[in-house]
Amino acid sequence: EDVLVTGVAADRNEAKITLQRVPDRPGLAAKIFGPIAKAHIVVDMIIQNASEDGTTDLTFTVPQNDYARALEIVAPIAAEIGAGGVKSDTDVVKVSVVGLGMRSHAGVASRIFEVLAREGINVEMISTSEIKVSVVIAAKYSELAVRVLHQALVAEGFEEESA
Amino acid sequence: EDVLVTGVAADRNEAKITLQRVPDRPGLAAKIFGPIAKAHIVVDMIIQNASEDGTTDLTFTVPQNDYARALEIVAPIAAEIGAGGVKSDTDVVKVSVVGLGMRSHAGVASRIFEVLAREGINVEMISTSEIKVSVVIAAKYSELAVRVLHQALVAEGFEEESA
Ligand SMILES: C[C@@H](O)[C@H](N)C(=O)O
Ligand SMILES: C[C@@H](O)[C@H](N)C(=O)O
Q1: What is the pLDDT of residues B56-102, one digit of tens each?
Q2: Which DSSP category does B25 fall into?
Q3: How far is Cα B46 from Cα A35, in angstroms, rounded to an integer?
Q4: Distance of CA B91 from the midpoint of ligand 2 (Å)
Q5: Ligand number with the minimum distance to the CA of B22
């Protein structure tokens, strides 16, 4: 397969909000996002991994100027649904690598993780879409991450290892 | 904003593998995906939420026929990096709702969660991209989920509530 990595972008305008230890039963994601949607809060990422002990974390990102309002809305909901807590962070950046022709995300993803690890950058969150691999990292690494990923994947060109 | 939900799709060919309680420090995601990429395993979703206690879960999905090989590769890595365990499930389906013009994912997402909750379907994982909101649910609900989501979002048409 011929993967072409076309660019690396950083979105520094995102703040993340995590409802921790949400009971993993039907209806709770709806209880959280209903009011968020009604308030016209702009939600970009929604990430929920599978639960282990009957609870799971639900994270979403909003623009920095929707952050206070979003927190205000979800805090009482978190309490009402019995979530363990709410954690949030405005000091994050979403870095996305766009790759055309990715039949598998593994190659581009592993290269991203390798490059960031080499710089001592911790990968806090990971999400994928058809043409992107996105990571959320600490905002202070934004410029460094974009630069090293662009060098390794775009400038040097990403080559999938052949079978 | 004018959101148009154009379709609902189900991918029943995905199996999920979760490395549980991966120590949250640089270099470990690279250690997992390096060998996975070298083995040419086709990875679709990669989901990692933020850590809480210094560890986090890392989930990825592969086609059913890459499943056994992927598990074989990650099991020893999980042990080597000190992960808490490996959990996997072939009985899942990824259901994706495609929406054009979604400035925020909140409206479409909350409607999806509402509809699934009404049917008693538990949302196991959530992921978003520019034009999609995807959920992973138990495979047995595949046909029901697609039918009710198509009815509610495509046939009836999704309307963002106006401010
Ligand atoms: C945790 C939350 O997503 C829950 N599983 C639900 O279906 O609403
Ligand atoms: C958990 C894993 O993603 C780790 N944070 C890393 O950067 O490799």
Answers
A1: 999 999 999 999 999 999 999 999 999 999 999 999 999 999 999 99
A2: S
A3: 28
A4: 27
A5: 2
